[in-house]
Amino acid sequence: MTLIPNLAQINAAAKGNNDLRETLLSLHLAVQTVQIQGPLTKVDSVPRKAAGPPGQSQLSVTGANGSFTVQITLPQQASGSAAPTNAANQPIYQEVSSSTVPNFSIGVVTYPLSTGTSFIFANPGATLYWRLRSSYDQKTFNNYSTQSGPVAAGLQTSAAINPNIPLSQGNFATVDSIAAGGSATVRIYGSGGVGTSWTSILGSNSKVIPAGTILNVTYGSTGFVAWDGSKYQFKAGLTQTFPDTWLPVGKVSVIASGAGLVLPVVHLVLGTGGAVLAWNVISGGTDLTADVTLAIVTSTGAGANPGAQTISGGVLQSIAPGNPGANYAGGDTVNVSGGVAAGVGGGGGPVGSNAGRLYGNTT
Fold first, then answer.
1. CATH of segment(s) 58-79+89-159
2. What are phi and psi of 176, to 5 degrees?
3. Is 76 helix (H, G, I), strand (E, B) or coil?
4. 17, 96, 152, 165 - which has most CB atoms within 10 Å?
5. Which stretches of 219-324 are DSSP H helices?
6. Residue 70 pairs with which residues in a beta bridge?
7. Domain segments of the chain: what residues?
């Protein structure tokens, strides 16, 4: 094929420049020799869209610990000869929805479209019905597939919650009260008994707090005790113990028997091998309305328990021997408490081993 260049246009473009004219002529002739076979295709063309919606995905919803777990099986993952397929492995958009009734007429919640196949929705205590439909283009959907029956999320358990270690707080203090003339005295102490320190734990840190007392507390009152960093405070309301620099310790129901209560003084009578032969009542106290509690403060002895108590006119008259135990020493003492009938007085509530939660123990 003979190629005829358009010399008039080339000469006009060259404007008398012979070198430029020869270059343009060469380019023109080279372009004319190119042969293009077949139709041109746009470089930004997209694959042909899938015809219709995808095959049915399978829905499975379970509930536990206050959450719903949704699992979706795609068509290409389904098993069995009758399972739908997605040969092109195209992305499938899933639309999950729930309702409080089986016909989805009310209480419907539709969750955002997603190509994901696993979801967790927190909804403690809820019981819901579930359904699913799918689409390739987010517009054309297949029919809903419905989870069989309602699913209960249940309540969230503490075992399902990761512990927040930095905020975990606990203390190991005992708070009680005793009569002291015209008012009561609140005592705060550790596991070693009255006068011993106790431990406060916050996160991974621990602090030893000294024992102490709060004087001149009104009989029969109920209050909350806090450590302010240098001394103990007694407040009527729990929120009053929450300043940033304070440490809440415990709640106490203050003894209510009045100024007349005086606790007895009791000494041990020891025999061979440190056995407790008798409980010697040095003074019987006054205005007792119930048996007193007797606790031996010892580092060596074990096993001794008092027998029956005889109280007459509010005074402790005698204590039967009971179990003698063994290995008690001459320096061991008897801690006397109680002596107030149920419903008349109070006492204290130990706070240790309760994860730092304050509570009232009025027995």
1. 2.60.40.10
2. -140, -175
3. helix
4. 96
5. none
6. 61, 119
7. 1-29, 58-79+89-159, 166-258, 265-338
